[in-house]
TrEMBL record:
<protein>
    <submittedName>
        <fullName>Uncharacterized protein</fullName>
    </submittedName>
</protein>
<dbReference type="InterPro" id="IPR017853">
    <property type="entry name" value="GH"/>
</dbReference>
Length: 1040
């Protein structure tokens, strides 16, 4: 008997201990799990605690820490800490599994435990663009992502919501809902729901007992009370095959928040079923709702598998403290009762389903980080070796050809120093740049801290193909006394060098300053920084002045020296040497350093850059020199030194005029640009050379003509791409260490000599896009204004022209002409008159051959015949002929707009090179998907005229040019007089064989209506990849 008792005792003990023993014996697995929970107003952690229990019960440990998951700290999001709180940001650390538990966030009343239960201000919440970028970056290699309510609703941004819907394969129909055990006021239902209901229905909230409340995104309220549904309330229903796959129980009640969604390209694993009666169903149908809607969705793609739960599935407060019991979840699954609590749903549905999902998660391979090269205690990531650029990657030195793009960062309405502060903007651009197969980005100055944070994030995600950084340090423009070596100038620049080095190493807080970036720089990007550039396009007069004021000045440094050159060269050597010394002494790190220059300062004698006076000093572009051959390396320089040059095919003029450049041939024929590259590199004997800027501008203007067609502006987007590829091939062929395209995106803040005098007031020109200015249109990413969907003014007619629709935006005046179906485009010519200001000025006739007058004077006409269109100017208002104020005439004579863009020159041997004028009148034919086009014909005639072609100096404030003073050359900015127009009058005629055929608008006489567009203080715009993007992308894919 005693033995039997002992045996039973031990059997009982074994039974009790068995779950624990089985758990101990179970194999441990390791996963890197991203748990994202932004809704943690207190320390119950209920939105993700249930998930953590499952992971620990499965003996899945945290791959990062090696420990069991801790719901108090192993998540990203809001962490409450008394009166204060912390934010745990998502770290790009190669997750195996992503779970978005809740993004609703934390609000003041919740955090401060205000019991009034009214809506309050958001403290933190909603998925942000930069967070979505990190998530999307890891949706590959078969990863699994799970999200649940509330991920997509407020306060998540609309465009983030749209992308999340695409990731998970559903569409939210705008409604959320919740089951309440008691609808009675002051019990469960939030006060803001009650207030909205009473306002909507103009009646008191008098509900009692259990019920459902539905809330729409525009705050409509629908209540189903106990009379509208049966005892089964809201249940989850799985399909038969999914019951087996996930080992879940069917028809379990769900008793908390949910949302109404529709599957788009996902499979429905389970549905919610509302047990409504006929009355309840009618209420639902009134608002477009149904009693059945998806509860669990799965989308399987070639890259990832996603699950979406349209309820707050993980939300549970009371989970067992212990988890080291094998089979405990099965026990709870059997004994849990289907009540008003969430316990039964958690154990019967959520736990088995999540265990199956987690079991299927693949462990991702860890990216190998080989670190940095260490040479006698000095760290290197890049170097110049045997005149070749190299990077240290995967534990070895590799040859590296720089395929780069320059980042100018002035968005519309902002100046160059007003850089974006949103990390998401940079991440979006980096993603597109990386997909263009670029390996390097270059910035000109120290950027806002968010730039470096974004770069670090991007590169930690893309460890195998990072974007390397070339960081320039820009000396101030207009130095005191035109002397770079002035003590104040030198001191200021040395401090800027220190700031930049410290920022790159993530180790400085720069105090607030005007016109330059500042803030906390805590993102170390030194291992992705491959070079520092010192300088800028130095002005020849500054170079000459510095040399004259510091005759005999030389510099010998430990890293860089200049003992045979001029003072400007010695100053550059001093700055480069200081940079390298500062970085090594403070961070035990060296990066290659380069001087920045341009053809204007090259050491080549250009025979075409001359004049009739035989005085080289009169030529801006060939009178001063910075020669890298005068530099030497110091004994401590192990990273290297090189030259970085801005080389374009169309400027200076000698790029277009040197006869021997025409001898250069590539696979496509003559390429004068290659001729210069070959000549320049042949004298660049001591150090490598990088083409740090090259590119082509689109748009509707041209500032310099190039014989090969690579003009300074006005090229179409296909030519832009093909030309950049062709130039890069020449750069590679001639032995440069790389090329960096100018530039990533269009910048409205830029200017050039043909436009700067006409953008008045100059301080407002960032508010509008000057399509005529080449410098504003170099981007591979178009940053363009948006044509309104509806016209501001529409005038209907019943002649050959049926209607005129007039629109405008920050770049163009648009004119859409609806024409009669029998319109003869071969024989008929349309003449559109534009009166831009002062009705008494301008010409009152459309043509000298047509005896028909406009009721107001016209400054411009547009002549359209077939697929040819030109804008012509009143002779007194033609800036191409230096006329800037309209006058009253009745001649019908208008001139082509042809300003000088290449001036006449006399070569050293006396040959005269004639001037070249720009064709500013022809409107390029083609639809508006290309930024250089201004006119096309389909069901209507579509015309868009850049504001600058109409002598509008600031469309945002309705200002137009009006200066009757005589000028021999364009004056300084803000010199021309202007006036404010009260609007434009647009009219026209149709002629055939110099005979009047039709008038519009009107019949016998033109009917005038003034078009006055709305001004603006903040521009609207969108981003669009130009057609050049794909061309460059394909070439860069093959370029090694």
């Amino acid at each position: 008997m005693k033995k039997r008792f002992v045996l039973l005792f031990f059997l009982g003990l074994l039974t009790i201990m068995l779950p624990f023993l089985l758990y101990i014996k179970k194999k441990t697995s390791y996963l890197n799990v991203w748990i994202i929970d932004k809704t943690v107003p207190n320390k119950d952690f209920r939105e993700h605690k249930g998930l953590v229990w499952i992971l620990n019960n499965m003996k899945v440990k945290n791959k990062i820490t090696g420990n069991y998951f801790d719901y108090k700290k192993d998540y990203f999001g809001f962490y409450p800490d008394g009166e204060r709180y912390n934010i745990f940001e998502i770290q790009p650390n190669n997750p195996d599994f992503i779970y978005i538990a809740d993004a609703y966030g934390v609000y003041e009343n919740d955090y401060k435990q205000n019991k009034e239960d009214i809506k309050s201000n958001l403290i933190y919440g909603g998925l942000k663009e930069e967070e979505l970028f990190k998530i999307k970056s890891y949706l590959n290699n078969g990863r699994v992502i799970v999200a649940e309510f509330n991920t997509i609703e407020y306060p998540t941004q609309e465009k983030v919501k749209d992308e999340l819907e695409n990731i998970f394969g559903f569409k939210w129909n705008g409604w959320i809902g919740r089951y309440f055990v008691e609808l009675k006021k002051d019990v469960e239902v939030p006060m803001w729901i009650i207030e909205n209901y009473e306002k909507q229905y103009n009646s008191k909230w008098d509900f009692k007992g259990r019920g459902f409340v539905f809330i729409s995104q525009d705050n409509k309220i629908l209540v189903l009370d106990k009379n509208d549904f049966g005892s089964k309330k809201l249940r989850i229903q799985f399909g038969e095959k999914y019951l087996r796959e996930f080992n879940v129980k069917n028809y379990v009640n769900y008793n908390y928040w949910f949302e109404v969604v529709s599957a788009i390209d996902s499979e429905v694993i389970a549905n919610f079923i509302l047990d409504v009666n006929e009355g309840g169903y009618k209420k639902l149908k009134k608002y477009g709702l149904d009693k059945k809607f998806p509860a669990v969705l799965r989308k399987v793609s070639s890259d990832y598998t996603s699950y979406y739960f349209s309820g707050d599935f993980a939300d549970i407060n009371d989970v067992p403290y212990f988890y080291k019991l094998e089979g405990y979840d099965l026990f709870k699954k059997l004994v849990s009762v289907n009540t008003d609590s969430q316990d039964a749903f958690y154990w019967k549905v959520y736990v088995p389903m999540m265990k199956k999902i987690i079991k299927d998660v693949k462990v991702m391979n860890k990216a190998i980080d080989y670190g940095l090269y260490n040479y006698k205690g000095v760290k290197l990531v890049s170097r110049i070796k045997n005149n070749e650029f190299q990077i240290y990657k995967n534990g070895v030195w590799q040859s590296f050809f720089i395929k780069g793009v320059n980042l100018g960062l002035a968005t519309p309405g902002k100046w160059f120093t007003q850089m974006p502060e949103n990390e998401a903007d940079y991440l979006r651009w980096f993603d597109l740049i990386g997909k263009m197969n670029v390996n390097t980005i270059r910035v000109y100055t120290l950027i806002h801290p968010s730039f470096y944070k974004a770069l670090k994030t991007y590169n930690e995600i893309h460890k195998d193909n990072p974007l390397y950084l070339v960081q320039e340090i820009w000396p101030d423009e207009n130095p005191k006394d035109h002397n770079y070596l002035d003590k104040e100038n030198l001191k200021s620049f040395m401090k800027e060098i220190e700031y930049v080095i410290d920022a790159i190493h993530g180790n400085i807080e720069i105090p607030k300053r005007i016109g330059k970036s500042y803030g906390i720089y805590d993102s170390d990007v030194s291992k992705w920084t491959i070079a520092f550039l010192v300088g800028r396009e130095l002005e020849p007069d500054e170079v000459i002045s510095t040399n004259q004021k510091n005759k005999g000045y030389k510099y010998k440094g430990e890293y860089v020296s200049c003992q045979v050159g001029e003072a400007t060269e010695a100053w550059l050597a001093l700055c480069c040497d200081y940079l390298m010394k500062y970085e090594e002494e403070k961070y035990k790190f060296q990066h290659p350093v380069a001087i920045v220059s341009w053809p204007t300062l090259d050491p080549i004698l250009h025979r075409s850059e001359f004049n009739a006076f035989s005085k080289k000093e009169l030529e801006y572009n060939d009178k001063a020199i910075v020669n890298i051959n005068n530099f030497d390396l110091g004994a401590r320089n192990i990273a290297g030194f090189f030259g970085a040059y801005h080389i374009y095919p169309n400027y200076p003029d000698f790029m277009n005029n040197e006869e021997h450049y025409k001898e250069y041939k590539d696979e496509y024929g003559r390429l004068m640009y290659g001729g210069y590259l070959k000549e320049f590199i042949s004298q660049h004997k001591k150090f490598p050379a990088l083409v740090a800027e090259f590119g082509l501008a689109t748009g509707a203007g041209n500032a310099h003509m190039n014989p090969d067609g690579y003009n300074h502006g006005g090229v179409d987007e296909i030519t832009q791409g093909e030309g950049i590829v062709r130039m890069m091939k020449a750069i590679k062929k001639e032995g440069y260490i790389g090329g960096i395209i100018f530039e990533w995106m269009d910048e409205w803040a830029k200017k050039t000599w043909i436009t700067e005098p006409f953008m008045i007031p100059y301080e407002r020109h960032v508010l509008w896009h000057n399509a005529v200015d080449p410098e504003q249109n170099y981007g591979i990413l178009a940053v363009e204004s948006i044509k309104p969907e509806k016209p501001d003014l529409q005038i209907k007619d019943d002649g050959l022209i049926k209607s005129i629709s007039i629109f405008s935006d920050e770049t163009y005046l648009y004119i859409d002409l609806e024409y009669d179906k029998n319109f003869d485009f071969i024989n008929n010519e349309i003449i559109i008159g534009i009166d831009t200001y002062d009705r008494s000025k301008g010409d009152f006739k459309y043509s000298p051959y047509i005896d028909f007058k406009s009721p107001t004077g016209m400054e411009f006409i547009i002549k359209i015949k077939n697929k040819t269109a030109k804008i012509l100017a009143h002779p007194e208002y033609n800036i191409g002929n230096m006329k800037f104020s309209s006058k009253k005439t009745e001649k019908g004579i208008y001139e082509e707009i042809k300003p000088v863009i290449n001036k006449s020159r006399v070569t050293m041997d006396g040959k005269i090179i004639p001037q070249i004028r720009q064709d500013g009148s022809t409107l390029k034919y083609g639809d508006f998907t290309d930024s250089s086009n201004c006119f096309y014909i389909e069901e209507k005639i579509y015309i868009r005229i850049p504001w600058a072609k109409l002598n509008v100096t600031d469309p945002s404030s309705h200002r137009v040019l009006d200066d009757d003073k005589k000028y021999l050359y364009y004056p300084e900015r803000d010199t021309f007089k202007t006036t404010v127009t009260d609007g434009f009058i647009i009219s026209g005629i149709v002629v055939a064989n110099n005979k009047l055929v039709d008038v519009f608008p009107g019949k016998q006489y033109v009917e005038t209506k003034i078009y006055k567009w709305k001004g603006w203080e903040e521009p609207k715009y969108r981003e669009r990849l130009k057609k050049s993007y794909g061309i460059i992308k394909e070439y860069f894919k093959t370029l090694k």
